[in-house]
Amino acid sequence: MKLQTAWLTILIALVLTLTAVVSAQVLDFKYLQDLSPPKTSQPVFLPGDVFLTRNANEEENTSPGFWNHCAIYVGDGQIVEAQQDPGEVVDSKLNEFMDRYPEIRVLRVRVAPERYGVAAASRATQLVGTKYRLTASISKALRVVGRGDNCVSTVRRCYQYSWDNDPRWRIPDGVNEYPAFRLVWEKGGL
Q1: Residue 64 pLDDT > 90, yes or no?
Q2: Mean pLDDT of 2-17
Q3: Environment class of 57 (CB within 10 Å of its CB; exposed 0-12, middle 13-18, buried 19+)
Q4: Where are the domains of the chain?
């Protein structure tokens, strides 16, 4: 009986010691960092993923809200975005777009991205060459088809086509807060 008690005491002491060592390692912040993937590791982006960006220089963040630009991924390493210079909706290379902005958030449609995202991306490629118009998303009265698009109205028109419903986004923050999207990746000091 004494032998069993001694072994049980040793076993309990061993378990407590191992638990303390493991707990100390788990609580070590560096250890936790090593377990998590780096924030900047890039996932596979899907057609229809929406990119929200923010400039590092506060003076360049002229849009209301936190996010100041949005674009849509169309596949094959290409982004479609409305740019004030050159004054139209353009297609850009993903790697150049990523290098341009220090803070990026990527959203994906929650339900059937292979259907809705692909349809939105398809519509985006059709909008390339559309004239840029800064006020395109301010009010419905100012949204005249063919008069031009800004970054938000470009993405809105893509998803309006895909969903057959106008999400009514006015600023990039509206896209960020829209419940039909989920966060898939972000870069920067968010």
Answers
A1: no
A2: 51
A3: exposed
A4: 2-35, 50-187
Res 57 pLDDT > 50:
yes
Topology classification of domain 50-187: endopeptidase fold (from Nostoc punctiforme) (3.90.1720)
Place of tokens 């004030």: 84
Is residue 49 predicted with pLDDT exceeding 80?
yes
Q: Report the pLDDT value the prediction gives residue 58, as an integer from 0 to 100.
A: 73
- The rounded distance, in Å, linking the Cα atoms of 148 and 134 is 8
Answer for the pair 190, 176: CB distance below 8 angstroms, yes or no: no
Please give the model's pTM, rounded to 2 decimal places: 0.74
Residue 12 exposed, middle or buried by CB count within 10 Å (0-12, 13-18, 19+): exposed
Residue type, 11: L
pLDDT digits (tens, 9 = 90+) for 140-182: 555 555 588 999 999 999 999 999 999 999 999 999 999 999 9
Q: How many CB atoms lie within 10 A of CB 128?
A: 16
Task: Tell me, rounded to whole angstroms, the distance of Cα 52 from its chain centroid.
Answer: 6
